[in-house]
Amino acid sequence: MSTAADLAPVQRMVFTQTRAQLLTRLRIPAFSVLSLGMPVMFFALFNGIFGREAENGVSGSEYILVSYATYAVANVMVYNFGIGIANERGRKLDLLQRAMPLPPMVAAVAQVLSALAFAFIALLILFAYAFLVGGVRLGAATWLDLLWRLLIGSFPMIGIGMAIGYGVGPNAAPAVVNVFYLPMAFLSGIFFPLRLMPDVLQKIGHVLPTYHYAQLGYGTLGRGVADEGAGTAFLWLAAWTVILFAIAVRIYRVDESRKFS
Amino acid sequence: MSATVELIDAHKRYGSVEAVKGVNVAVHPGEMVAMLGPNGAGKTTSINLMLGLRKPTAGRARLFGLDPDDRRARSRCGVMLQESGVPDTLTVRELVELFSSYYPHPMPADRAIGLAGLDQQAKRQAGKLSGGQRQRLYFALAVCGDPEVIFFDEPTVGMDVESRRQFLDTIREFGREGKTIMLTTHYLEEADQLAERVIVIDRGVVIADATPVEIKSSVVGKRVSFTSPLPLSAADLAGLPHSRLDIDKERVRFFSNDPEAVLRELFRRGVQIHDLEVVGADLEEAFLALTTEAEKETVA
């Protein structure tokens, strides 16, 4: 007969596994410098050029901050999380773990939680820089609003990261990211406004999760800044989450059954 | 008493290759068993079946009477695999603590680190360990959950003679605490040094399951080869202690546990011998000898 004492408590496993995942990637400079440093660098660069301009009562600095906050989280999910998983699978880090009394579900949940924690750190660093050096002054409520919207809204990108991470090997992963994700990022409106693009690209962009994700962020700066309301953006992102997770879970299952059946 | 680890007529097919062809193994609590076989014999596949990392195509695998996938079974077993890594950027202690958290009753992290002899390296990142230290880290991860049974898949690959000896001593020490140990190796000496029971596996079939002494007596031998200007026939060697005689024109080859006696008799009979070579049979040949015997037995 089994009792609870025959098994390790799941909460503790989720906690230690998430912490270990987070530490593992924070200590890989290729990941941490890229994920934590690049958004700050881009913000600093464009804030220096366009920071003083203003539109609809929103300063250029604020707009640029939101842009690169969006960029920061999406980057963590696709590069850090997606390519990270591909690398770890390539080095067979998942093999020993699979023989442990660690439920695969706990390992997967810890992966997602550690990616969210990594994104959280990336946002805190960017916010701190924007506040201390960039001179961005948002209300406390707006900072918080931006933080949770970007974390919750990032699930479609988690799906993309997971699909890439479990779908392809470490050598192919960067190429696959460039083929699928880079155009999505390009058409998100983060780097330059979508309305300046050709009509057909605008139409494509308006469907993509990255565009609605960016709109979710801009919406925190006030009415009229975003093209659509938070509700609409969330609905789009929820739909994309369902689609992309369905694909990611399928890819994950194929990988599992190839290796462990 | 039911078996700790059990394969019941287990088969495993990968595409067109059948890696394991009906293996029956039952390991009982406290036994120290070595699974011995050349590369590609089906050792790792057998271990993977026992651990539930692979599912048998036919037959069954049981761990503590449960499906090996069952978390209750896995919570009672530790594993050291051949081709698995851990994140390079975590320290020895962090990894031991992480793996301990998977188990219901782990030993203190310090004890696992101490058993593996890594006290000095506890704060070092896994990526900065030497090859031998890395193997010992995997040992620490295998024992940290204080499991009842531990699987070691070729744990000493890539170690020098001295670290191999020390490592096996550590395993044996641990086994003395009443742990069940299942180890694969392709070194006969290793099986001999560690195990009370050796299961020889070749081409996916168990060809021997006995004590090391019994196994050795059946495989130890010398390989003799020479040329003779006058072609010999099998009759010329009749009644002499040899096996697997192979005469190819002038070339004569056979195995013998007592080559001196054979040669003495051949000289006495006036057989002319050139290019004489007497070498210890290596393990590949020992396995061949065992397989041939196994085949003979099935025929008989």
Q: Which helices and strands occur, and which strands form pairs?
A:
The complex is a heterodimer of chains A (261) and B (300).
Chain A: H1 10-26, H2 29-50, E1 54-55, E2 58-59, H3 60-90, H4 93-98, H5 104-132, H6 140-152, H7 155-167, H8 173-186, H9 199-205, H10 209-218, H11 230-259
Antiparallel strand pairs in A: 1-2
Chain B: E1 5-14, E2 17-27, E3 32-36, H1 43-51, E4 58-63, H2 71-74, E5 77-80, H3 92-100, H4 109-115, H5 131-143, E6 149-153, H6 161-175, E7 180-185, H7 188-194, E8 197-202, E9 205-210, H8 212-219, E10 222-227, E11 243-248, E12 251-256, H9 259-268, E13 274-280, H10 283-299
Parallel strand pairs in B: 3-7, 3-8, 5-6, 6-7
Antiparallel strand pairs in B: 1-2, 1-4, 8-9, 10-12, 10-13, 11-12
What do these coordinates show?
- The complex is a heterodimer of chains A (261) and B (300).
- Chain A has 261 residues and is an all-alpha fold.
- Chain A has one domain (9-259).
- Chain A is 74% helix and 2% strand.
- Chain A has helices at 10-26, 29-50, 60-90, 93-98, 104-132, 140-152, 155-167, 173-186, 199-205, 209-218, 230-259, and strands at 54-55, 58-59.
- A two-stranded antiparallel sheet of chain A has the order 1-2.
- Chain A is globular, with a radius of gyration of 19 Å.
- The two termini of chain A are 27 Å apart.
- The model of chain A has no long low-confidence stretch (mean pLDDT 90).
- By secondary structure, chain B is an alpha/beta fold.
- Chain B folds into two domains: 5-218, Rossmann fold (3-Layer(aba) Sandwich); 221-280, Alpha-Beta Plaits, CATH 3.30.70.
- Helices cover 33% and strands 28% of the residues of chain B.
- Chain B has ten helices and 13 strands.
- In chain B, the strands form three sheets. A six-stranded mixed β-sheet of chain B has the order 5-6-7-3-8-9, sandwiched between helices. In chain B, strands 11-12-10-13 form a four-stranded antiparallel β-sheet, with no helix packed on it. Chain B has a three-stranded antiparallel β-sheet with strand order 2-1-4.
- Chain B starts with a strand and ends with a helix.
- The chains are: A mainly alpha (261), B alpha/beta (300).
- At the A-B interface, α1 and α4 of A face α2 and α3 of B.
